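Shapes recur. Our protein:

. . .
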Amino acid sequence: MRMDSTGRWFVTILPVCLVTLAVAINSAVAAPVLWLRADEGISLDDNGGVANWTDQSGQGHDAFQNELNDRPLWVANGLNGLPVVRFNGTQTLDLLGQVLTSQQFTIIAVLNDARLSGDVARREIFSNWDVSNATTSIFLGTVNDDPTRVRLSDNFGGTDPPYNQQGAGPLDNPATHFILTGLSGATDALQFQNSSLIASLGAALSPRVLDTAYFIGKQGTLTDENWIGDLAELRIYDEALSNDELQRIWTELEIRYGIAVPEPSSVILGAIGALALVATARRKRRAETLAP
Protein backbone atom coordinates (compact mmCIF):
# COMPACT_ATOMS: atom_id res chain seq x y z
CA MET A 1 0.00 0.00 0.00
CA ARG A 2 0.96 3.62 -0.45
CA MET A 3 -0.01 6.56 1.66
CA ASP A 4 -1.09 9.70 -0.12
CA SER A 5 -0.50 13.23 1.18
CA THR A 6 -3.61 13.09 3.36
CA GLY A 7 -2.73 9.78 4.96
CA ARG A 8 -5.93 8.27 3.55
CA TRP A 9 -4.77 4.64 3.51
CA PHE A 10 -4.65 4.56 7.28
CA VAL A 11 -8.41 5.20 7.28
CA THR A 12 -9.14 2.21 5.05
CA ILE A 13 -6.87 -0.35 6.70
CA LEU A 14 -9.14 -0.91 9.73
CA PRO A 15 -12.16 -2.18 7.75
CA VAL A 16 -9.86 -4.38 5.67
CA CYS A 17 -8.40 -5.90 8.82
CA LEU A 18 -11.85 -6.47 10.28
CA VAL A 19 -13.06 -8.20 7.12
CA THR A 20 -9.95 -10.36 6.94
CA LEU A 21 -10.30 -11.30 10.59
CA ALA A 22 -13.99 -12.17 10.22
CA VAL A 23 -13.27 -14.42 7.24
CA ALA A 24 -10.43 -16.14 9.08
CA ILE A 25 -12.58 -16.75 12.16
CA ASN A 26 -15.75 -17.95 10.46
CA SER A 27 -14.38 -20.00 7.56
CA ALA A 28 -14.88 -23.76 7.81
CA VAL A 29 -16.92 -23.58 11.02
CA ALA A 30 -20.05 -25.72 11.28
CA ALA A 31 -23.44 -24.02 11.44
CA PRO A 32 -25.15 -23.93 14.86
CA VAL A 33 -28.60 -25.41 15.38
CA LEU A 34 -29.30 -22.81 18.10
CA TRP A 35 -27.75 -19.35 18.30
CA LEU A 36 -28.92 -16.76 20.79
CA ARG A 37 -27.23 -13.37 21.21
CA ALA A 38 -28.37 -10.74 23.69
CA ASP A 39 -27.85 -8.04 21.07
CA GLU A 40 -30.08 -9.71 18.46
CA GLY A 41 -33.73 -10.73 18.27
CA ILE A 42 -34.82 -9.73 21.78
CA SER A 43 -38.48 -8.79 22.45
CA LEU A 44 -39.04 -7.12 25.83
CA ASP A 45 -42.08 -6.43 27.96
CA ASP A 46 -42.68 -3.09 29.68
CA ASN A 47 -40.53 -4.15 32.64
CA GLY A 48 -37.50 -5.10 30.55
CA GLY A 49 -38.21 -8.80 30.77
CA VAL A 50 -37.39 -11.09 27.85
CA ALA A 51 -40.65 -12.28 26.31
CA ASN A 52 -39.07 -13.74 23.17
CA TRP A 53 -35.51 -14.34 21.97
CA THR A 54 -35.21 -15.21 18.28
CA ASP A 55 -32.89 -18.02 17.28
CA GLN A 56 -30.26 -16.57 14.92
CA SER A 57 -29.34 -19.99 13.49
CA GLY A 58 -32.40 -20.05 11.24
CA GLN A 59 -33.57 -23.33 12.77
CA GLY A 60 -36.50 -21.71 14.58
CA HIS A 61 -35.56 -22.72 18.14
CA ASP A 62 -36.74 -19.42 19.61
CA ALA A 63 -36.65 -18.92 23.38
CA PHE A 64 -39.75 -17.53 25.06
CA GLN A 65 -41.46 -17.04 28.40
CA ASN A 66 -45.22 -16.53 28.61
CA GLU A 67 -45.30 -15.89 32.36
CA LEU A 68 -44.56 -12.23 33.10
CA ASN A 69 -42.94 -12.85 36.48
CA ASP A 70 -40.66 -15.61 35.16
CA ARG A 71 -38.94 -13.55 32.47
CA PRO A 72 -35.19 -12.88 32.82
CA LEU A 73 -34.13 -9.25 32.48
CA TRP A 74 -32.31 -7.72 29.54
CA VAL A 75 -29.39 -5.56 30.74
CA ALA A 76 -28.15 -3.10 28.12
CA ASN A 77 -24.57 -2.74 29.38
CA GLY A 78 -23.93 -5.99 31.16
CA LEU A 79 -20.59 -7.04 29.66
CA ASN A 80 -18.05 -4.52 28.41
CA GLY A 81 -20.69 -2.34 26.78
CA LEU A 82 -22.70 -5.24 25.35
CA PRO A 83 -26.07 -6.52 26.60
CA VAL A 84 -26.76 -9.69 28.56
CA VAL A 85 -29.84 -11.61 29.65
CA ARG A 86 -29.77 -11.82 33.46
CA PHE A 87 -31.29 -14.72 35.43
CA ASN A 88 -31.97 -14.38 39.17
CA GLY A 89 -32.66 -17.99 40.13
CA THR A 90 -36.39 -17.96 39.41
CA GLN A 91 -36.51 -16.82 35.78
CA THR A 92 -36.36 -19.26 32.86
CA LEU A 93 -36.98 -19.59 29.13
CA ASP A 94 -38.57 -22.36 27.05
CA LEU A 95 -37.19 -23.36 23.66
CA LEU A 96 -39.17 -24.29 20.56
CA GLY A 97 -38.57 -27.71 19.04
CA GLN A 98 -35.99 -30.43 19.48
CA VAL A 99 -32.60 -28.71 19.54
CA LEU A 100 -30.26 -31.72 19.47
CA THR A 101 -30.63 -34.86 17.37
CA SER A 102 -27.08 -36.25 17.57
CA GLN A 103 -25.21 -37.95 20.42
CA GLN A 104 -22.23 -35.84 19.39
CA PHE A 105 -22.77 -32.16 20.12
CA THR A 106 -21.14 -28.93 21.31
CA ILE A 107 -22.60 -26.30 23.65
CA ILE A 108 -20.84 -22.92 23.92
CA ALA A 109 -22.08 -20.16 26.23
CA VAL A 110 -20.79 -16.71 27.20
CA LEU A 111 -21.92 -16.26 30.79
CA ASN A 112 -21.04 -15.87 34.42
CA ASP A 113 -22.07 -17.81 37.52
CA ALA A 114 -23.25 -15.20 40.02
CA ARG A 115 -24.13 -17.56 42.87
CA LEU A 116 -23.54 -16.18 46.34
CA SER A 117 -20.84 -17.51 48.61
CA GLY A 118 -21.97 -20.77 50.17
CA ASP A 119 -24.45 -21.59 47.42
CA VAL A 120 -23.73 -25.22 46.53
CA ALA A 121 -26.94 -25.82 44.55
CA ARG A 122 -27.03 -27.41 41.10
CA ARG A 123 -27.84 -24.78 38.46
CA GLU A 124 -28.36 -25.29 34.73
CA ILE A 125 -28.01 -22.99 31.74
CA PHE A 126 -29.37 -25.47 29.14
CA SER A 127 -31.29 -28.70 29.62
CA ASN A 128 -33.78 -31.22 28.25
CA TRP A 129 -34.29 -33.06 31.56
CA ASP A 130 -37.63 -34.78 32.06
CA VAL A 131 -38.99 -37.54 34.27
CA SER A 132 -38.81 -39.84 31.23
CA ASN A 133 -35.05 -39.24 30.79
CA ALA A 134 -34.07 -38.33 34.34
CA THR A 135 -30.61 -39.92 34.12
CA THR A 136 -30.19 -39.85 30.33
CA SER A 137 -30.83 -36.17 29.59
CA ILE A 138 -28.54 -33.42 28.34
CA PHE A 139 -27.71 -30.43 30.50
CA LEU A 140 -24.89 -27.94 30.97
CA GLY A 141 -24.57 -26.20 34.30
CA THR A 142 -22.60 -25.78 37.49
CA VAL A 143 -22.61 -26.92 41.10
CA ASN A 144 -20.81 -26.12 44.38
CA ASP A 145 -18.94 -23.04 45.47
CA ASP A 146 -15.40 -23.96 46.54
CA PRO A 147 -14.67 -24.27 43.71
CA THR A 148 -17.65 -24.10 41.41
CA ARG A 149 -17.59 -27.05 39.00
CA VAL A 150 -19.22 -27.94 35.69
CA ARG A 151 -21.75 -30.70 34.92
CA LEU A 152 -22.36 -31.93 31.38
CA SER A 153 -25.18 -34.44 31.98
CA ASP A 154 -25.43 -36.99 34.82
CA ASN A 155 -22.78 -38.98 33.00
CA PHE A 156 -20.17 -36.20 33.32
CA GLY A 157 -20.19 -34.31 36.59
CA GLY A 158 -23.59 -35.61 37.72
CA THR A 159 -24.80 -38.78 39.40
CA ASP A 160 -22.42 -41.28 37.83
CA PRO A 161 -19.37 -42.18 39.96
CA PRO A 162 -17.01 -40.65 40.84
CA TYR A 163 -18.88 -37.36 40.56
CA ASN A 164 -22.10 -37.92 42.54
CA GLN A 165 -23.42 -34.47 41.61
CA GLN A 166 -20.18 -32.77 42.64
CA GLY A 167 -19.29 -31.58 39.15
CA ALA A 168 -16.15 -32.27 37.14
CA GLY A 169 -14.13 -29.30 35.79
CA PRO A 170 -13.31 -26.60 38.38
CA LEU A 171 -13.93 -23.00 37.28
CA ASP A 172 -11.54 -20.12 37.86
CA ASN A 173 -13.33 -16.95 39.07
CA PRO A 174 -16.77 -17.89 37.67
CA ALA A 175 -18.36 -14.60 38.78
CA THR A 176 -16.36 -12.92 35.99
CA HIS A 177 -17.80 -13.51 32.52
CA PHE A 178 -16.20 -16.37 30.60
CA ILE A 179 -16.81 -18.86 27.78
CA LEU A 180 -18.10 -22.25 28.93
CA THR A 181 -17.96 -25.16 26.49
CA GLY A 182 -19.28 -28.68 26.83
CA LEU A 183 -18.47 -31.15 24.05
CA SER A 184 -19.71 -34.69 23.51
CA GLY A 185 -17.47 -36.52 21.06
CA ALA A 186 -17.31 -40.03 19.64
CA THR A 187 -14.58 -41.14 22.06
CA ASP A 188 -14.50 -38.50 24.80
CA ALA A 189 -16.48 -35.70 26.45
CA LEU A 190 -14.75 -32.43 27.33
CA GLN A 191 -15.31 -29.27 29.36
CA PHE A 192 -13.55 -25.96 28.71
CA GLN A 193 -13.37 -22.59 30.42
CA ASN A 194 -12.44 -20.05 27.76
CA SER A 195 -9.90 -22.04 25.72
CA SER A 196 -8.56 -24.10 28.64
CA LEU A 197 -9.51 -27.76 29.04
CA ILE A 198 -10.78 -28.24 32.60
CA ALA A 199 -12.11 -31.81 32.47
CA SER A 200 -12.12 -34.89 30.26
CA LEU A 201 -14.43 -37.87 30.79
CA GLY A 202 -12.06 -40.28 29.06
CA ALA A 203 -14.90 -41.95 27.16
CA ALA A 204 -17.95 -41.00 25.14
CA LEU A 205 -21.08 -40.01 27.05
CA SER A 206 -23.50 -42.86 27.56
CA PRO A 207 -26.45 -42.54 25.13
CA ARG A 208 -28.69 -39.55 25.85
CA VAL A 209 -32.43 -39.26 25.18
CA LEU A 210 -32.80 -36.12 23.08
CA ASP A 211 -36.48 -35.83 22.10
CA THR A 212 -37.86 -34.13 25.22
CA ALA A 213 -38.47 -30.37 25.57
CA TYR A 214 -35.51 -28.00 25.93
CA PHE A 215 -35.11 -25.07 28.33
CA ILE A 216 -32.71 -22.28 29.27
CA GLY A 217 -32.02 -21.36 32.88
CA LYS A 218 -33.42 -24.44 34.61
CA GLN A 219 -33.19 -28.22 34.79
CA GLY A 220 -35.73 -29.17 32.16
CA THR A 221 -39.24 -29.70 33.46
CA LEU A 222 -38.08 -29.46 37.07
CA THR A 223 -38.95 -26.26 38.91
CA ASP A 224 -35.50 -25.85 40.46
CA GLU A 225 -31.76 -25.89 39.65
CA ASN A 226 -32.34 -22.44 38.11
CA TRP A 227 -29.48 -20.31 36.79
CA ILE A 228 -28.16 -17.25 38.65
CA GLY A 229 -26.07 -15.07 36.38
CA ASP A 230 -25.81 -13.58 32.90
CA LEU A 231 -26.06 -15.14 29.47
CA ALA A 232 -24.64 -13.03 26.64
CA GLU A 233 -24.58 -15.68 23.93
CA LEU A 234 -25.43 -19.35 23.46
CA ARG A 235 -24.42 -21.49 20.49
CA ILE A 236 -25.30 -25.16 20.15
CA TYR A 237 -24.01 -27.48 17.43
CA ASP A 238 -25.41 -30.88 16.49
CA GLU A 239 -21.91 -32.29 16.19
CA ALA A 240 -18.62 -32.36 18.06
CA LEU A 241 -16.61 -29.41 16.76
CA SER A 242 -12.98 -29.90 15.87
CA ASN A 243 -10.21 -28.19 17.81
CA ASP A 244 -9.71 -25.78 14.90
CA GLU A 245 -13.40 -24.86 14.87
CA LEU A 246 -13.42 -24.35 18.63
CA GLN A 247 -10.38 -22.10 18.48
CA ARG A 248 -11.96 -19.95 15.77
CA ILE A 249 -15.19 -19.53 17.74
CA TRP A 250 -13.42 -18.86 21.04
CA THR A 251 -11.25 -16.21 19.39
CA GLU A 252 -14.31 -14.51 17.91
CA LEU A 253 -16.12 -14.50 21.25
CA GLU A 254 -13.07 -13.33 23.18
CA ILE A 255 -12.70 -10.37 20.84
CA ARG A 256 -16.40 -9.49 20.80
CA TYR A 257 -16.90 -9.56 24.54
CA GLY A 258 -13.46 -8.46 25.70
CA ILE A 259 -13.02 -11.63 27.73
CA ALA A 260 -9.34 -11.92 26.76
CA VAL A 261 -6.86 -10.27 24.41
CA PRO A 262 -6.17 -12.98 21.80
CA GLU A 263 -3.35 -12.70 19.30
CA PRO A 264 -5.50 -11.81 16.23
CA SER A 265 -6.72 -8.64 17.91
CA SER A 266 -3.20 -7.18 17.68
CA VAL A 267 -3.87 -6.50 14.00
CA ILE A 268 -6.90 -4.41 14.85
CA LEU A 269 -5.13 -2.66 17.71
CA GLY A 270 -2.27 -1.83 15.39
CA ALA A 271 -4.68 -0.29 12.88
CA ILE A 272 -6.37 1.72 15.62
CA GLY A 273 -2.98 2.92 16.79
CA ALA A 274 -2.12 3.96 13.24
CA LEU A 275 -5.34 5.94 13.02
CA ALA A 276 -4.51 7.72 16.25
CA LEU A 277 -1.01 8.62 15.02
CA VAL A 278 -2.35 9.99 11.74
CA ALA A 279 -4.99 12.04 13.53
CA THR A 280 -2.33 13.51 15.82
CA ALA A 281 -0.05 14.36 12.88
CA ARG A 282 -2.86 15.99 10.94
CA ARG A 283 -3.85 18.11 13.95
CA LYS A 284 -0.20 19.17 14.31
CA ARG A 285 0.04 20.14 10.62
CA ARG A 286 -3.23 22.06 10.86
CA ALA A 287 -1.97 23.92 13.92
CA GLU A 288 1.30 24.80 12.15
CA THR A 289 -0.61 26.06 9.10
CA LEU A 290 -2.85 28.29 11.22
CA ALA A 291 -0.01 29.61 13.37
CA PRO A 292 0.87 33.30 12.69
Remarks:
- DSSP finds three helices and 16 strands in the chain.
- The longest strand covers residues 228-237.
- The two ends are 36 Å apart (CA to CA).
